[in-house]
Amino acid sequence: MKFTSQEEFGLRCLLRLGKQHGEGSLTIPEISRLEGISPAYVGKLMRVLRTAGLVTSVRGQAGGYRLSRPPEAIPVGEAMAVLGGRLYEPQFCAEHSGEERVCTHSVDCSLRSLWRSLQLVLDQVLDRTSLRDLLCNEAAMDTWVDHLVSVSGLHSPPA
Predict the structure, then answer these.
(1) 132: which of 2, 32, 37, 71 fits an S-S bond (Cβ 3.0–4.6 Å)?
(2) DSSP structure class, residue 52
(3) Residue 126, SS3?
(4) 1-85: CATH number
């Protein structure tokens, strides 16, 4: 299981705009330079994020991109769904049945239960975390994630 570059770079672009929130917009070349991502890829990501309603474009001399809502009103889960989709969707099993028309485990599948549970935990963490929450340093984010894990009843991995 891996995150794609679109998810990683898309979140980085959103965070950059979150840092700029209330202070004007940023152009594609500015985001590109600040994040170390090619202008063409930033342009692609901005189109995806604008189509989804997460950013707006501003025309004119002071133009560029800005968040469409305050950072605290944009859940990371929403951004991740736009940028790459969910880890597990219910139709996954029907689409990946192997050589058979119907998966041999379709009636009783422990894997499906695992993927569904993992998606539930991911949704809880990502939907409770806003872009605003991510506008901090790594140590503060570690504390935030530890809090979410304890609230969810899960155990943190040993350090």
Answers:
(1) 71
(2) T
(3) helix
(4) 1.10.10.10
